[in-house]
Amino acid sequence: MDTASLDAEILQMRDVLTSLQGELERRTRRVDLSSDGLFDLRRRIDEVQARLEARMLTQQRVEASDGFAISVSRSVVQSALPPDTAVLAYFVGDRRSHAWLMTQTELRHGVLPGRRVLQSFVTSFIAQERSGTLPAGGTSFPALLGDLLAGVNAKRLLILPDGPLNGLPFAALSMPRGQAGELLVDRFEISAAPSLALAMRPPPRRHETVTRVAVISDPVYTPDDRRLTASASRSSQFRGSDAGSDRLARLPYSAIEARAVARAFEGADIIELAGFNATVPRVIQLPSHDLDVLHFATHAEARRDAPEQSALFLSEYAADGSTLPIDRLTAEEVRRHGLRADVVVLSGCATGDGRELRGEGVLGLTYGFLSNGSNTVVASLWPVEDALTARFMQEFYAAYRATGRAAQALRAAQLRTRGIAGPSVWASFVVRSGSLQ
């Protein structure tokens, strides 16, 4: 294909993407967000965006397709990569998929099976991780990595997943041709980004003042919560709604987790919103542009049918027992109010799960925080047991306070808890990054 034909194809895809995004914005402004065709429209947007970025990557140019204005040559992207960083990018097609491994000096390409095969692998892999039935030596999917990582000396791996691969815990994959039992987490500090365009943004400037941390925890979800009545409240084992129930239960260990976060940042400016104070209005009023860390220890929901309605569930009741008019903070509200922090931790149920959406988090919680200027979002891919989540977060923050790097701290916490909590806990947590740095 000559340059003129290539440019025409790129321009056509950009026009289609702009038109689809405009239509989606018009529809989401309506009251009825479940109108026919809305889910299909999002899928079409994500597919065009992924194809556009894949085309740019293979044709020496990388250009933003998600509202971030970047148009640079591949050589510029490579020169912008830190010497210790490699980028692993995927495009998932219905019949055939593609993977690229980029470092400062080379670009490798691999061909993978189509969406259905990859989805089947991801579903099976997660089921084994969560049930503890994964083979002792781990498991891999040869076509997923192939020889892309052979001889790569990078210490950091930035992954640009697509489609079902957004829900895959890459850290728990076996290292191709590695030592017996060696996983990717043993070799790399792993993070992921919704797009290369987003990852190419300049890193945020660090605050020169004292560290400021906001922690939201232990909301009041039920009318029989003992903080409202003298009766014993129900409690929840997992950070998601109870099976067979439409009511959220209290998370008893989230308060312990919040105290652990505060202890990790002893001497910092700590803003704690707990119990009756863990409300949507109070969270929205946080001085988010001055926050170094924003931590949510709450129930959460990732909406695959309506990503912009994915939500963090906050207190449903006031101290006098009255119900609050708004009890959930949606991804749409996160973006509208500019809520952000250098590091956002969503210690809830499946807060980072987007495996049924191309371009994970494009309209979800993760992307909402990243698009507002957050540098990193730490989230979970599936429900995690409440007490073990609190333990894991203690390890994460101890490492983060020492390193100042979320991806490095997550890897340290994963390695420390790997032999204690098992993959159902440590493999669930992922880092979504908004910067290559």
Describe this structure in words.
With 437 residues, this protein is an alpha/beta fold. It has 3 domains: 1-74; 81-192; 212-433, Rossmann fold, CATH 3.40.50. The protein is 34% helix and 18% strand. The chain has 14 helices and 16 strands. The chain has helices at residues 3-28, 38-58, 74-80, 115-131, 142-145, 184-187, 196-199, 252-264, 280-284, 331-336, 365-371, 386-403, 406-417, 423-426; strands spanning 61-63, 71-73, 85-91, 96-102, 107-113, 156-160, 189-192, 212-219, 269-275, 293-297, 299-301, 311-313, 328-330, 343-346, 376-380, 429-433. Strands 9-8-10-14-15-16 form a 6-stranded mixed sheet, sandwiched between helices. Helix 1 packs antiparallel against helix 2 (38-58). It is globular and about 60 Å long. Residues 60-72, 230-234, 239-245 and 353-363 have low confidence and may be disordered.
Task: State the major sheet.
Answer: 6 strands, mixed
Helix count from the secondary structure assignment: 14
Helix content: 25-40%
Q: What is the mean pLDDT?
A: 79
Morphology call: globular
> Which CATH architecture of the largest domain would you pick?
3-Layer(aba) Sandwich
Write down the CATH topology of the largest domain: Rossmann fold
Q: What would you report as the Rg, rounded to the nearest angstrom? A: 21 Å
How many beta strands in the DSSP annotation? 16
Strand content: 15-25%
